């Protein structure tokens, strides 16, 4: 049961969208199409890059969103995690810039991803890609939209050589080795946008290698679900968010009708199922 009333056109949802768009404008000031970002670049302990724009957007979103719902917890890629979020029914799950490597090198497919999670599942999801001029919005039980137009997943009834699929190269190779045929699409730097492309029907299926975190996928999960698709791990179960462990294994995204087929292929490619 939702703790707060929400729908498209609701003031809270509109405020979320406005916050994501304003955050995108902040990041866009550091973006240079086809060239290295103007932002200073550093590296985290694990070696992944981060820019001053990531931190700027993170601070802005936290200040703006916590004003809207001060009772909600906070989980963001660029904020030190706190166990305090685990006691919250509501939590913001945020990726200030999803696709930082693309952002850094001048590729347009990066996005601000914002989700409001209630009791482990997303309630509101917003993905704003300012360099592409795209804003995806979903509300639980009320559908998904791209630039305010309702979106639905592909109507493909089975995966075959015509299917437009996005997957890491190593995984695409393994999928082909186990007999899964498809048209591999160019890599989308932002995982959130990769999943959203399945939601809009621009892709027929998508795969993510086992290194994603809650902030990469929470908003996109809701957008895909509300567009008639499914995002799941290899167990086929719905993903739960705001747990102590926020990391996820290999993920599959596809229209609900063909998701079992896609998930079975991923299990086979991972060696978890027999031919």
Explain what you see.
This protein is α+β, with helices and mostly antiparallel strands. The chain has seven helices and 16 strands. Helix 1 runs antiparallel to helix 2 (52-68), helix 4 crosses helix 7 (259-269) and helix 5 (191-200) runs parallel beside helix 6. The longest helix has 18 residues, at 11-28. The radius of gyration is 18 Å and the shape is globular. The N and C termini lie far apart (42 Å).
Secondary structure blueprint with pairings:
Layout: H1 11-28, E1 41-43, E2 49-51, H2 52-68, E3 73-76, E4 90-98, H3 100-105, E5 111-118, E6 121-129, E7 134-139, E8 144-146, E9 149-150, E10 164-166, H4 169-177, E11 183-184, H5 191-200, E12 205-208, E13 212-213, H6 214-226, E14 229-233, E15 247-248, E16 251-255, H7 259-269
Parallel strand pairs: 3-4, 10-11, 10-12
Antiparallel strand pairs: 1-2, 4-5, 5-6, 6-7, 7-8, 8-9, 12-16, 13-15, 14-16
Helix pairs in contact: 1-2, 4-7, 5-6
Q: Short summary of the structure?
A:
This protein has 275 residues and is α+β, with helices and mostly antiparallel strands. The protein has seven helices and 16 strands.
């Amino acid at each position: 049961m939702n703790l707060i009333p929400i729908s498209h056109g609701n003031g809270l949802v509109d405020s979320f969208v406005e916050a994501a768009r304003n955050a995108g404008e902040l990041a866009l000031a550091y973006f240079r199409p086809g060239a290295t970002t103007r932002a200073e670049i550093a590296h985290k302990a694990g070696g992944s890059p981060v820019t001053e724009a990531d931190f700027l957007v993170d601070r802005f979103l936290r200040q703006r969103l916590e004003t809207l719902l001060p009772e909600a917890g906070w989980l963001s890629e660029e904020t030190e995690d706190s166990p305090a979020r685990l006691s919250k029914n509501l939590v913001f799950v945020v990726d200030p810039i999803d696709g930082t490597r693309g952002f850094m090198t001048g590729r347009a497919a990066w996005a601000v991803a914002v989700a409001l999670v209630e009791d482990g599942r997303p309630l509101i999801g917003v993905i704003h890609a300012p360099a592409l001029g795209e804003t995806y919005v979903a509300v639980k039980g009320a559908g998904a939209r791209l630039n305010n137009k309702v979106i639905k997943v592909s109507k493909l009834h089975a995966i075959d050589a015509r299917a437009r699929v996005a997957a890491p190269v190593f995984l695409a190779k393994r999928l082909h080795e186990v007999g899964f045929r498809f048209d591999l699409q160019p890599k989308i730097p932002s995982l959130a946008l990769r999943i959203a492309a399945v939601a809009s029907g621009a892709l027929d299926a998508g795969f993510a290698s086992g290194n994603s975190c809650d902030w990469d996928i929470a908003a996109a999960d809701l957008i895909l679900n509300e567009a008639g698709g499914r995002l799941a791990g290899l167990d086929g179960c719905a993903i739960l968010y705001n747990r102590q462990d926020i990391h996820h294994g290999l993920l599959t995204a596809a229209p609900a009708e063909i998701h079992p087929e896609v998930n079975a292929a991923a299990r086979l490619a991972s060696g978890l199922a027999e031919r």
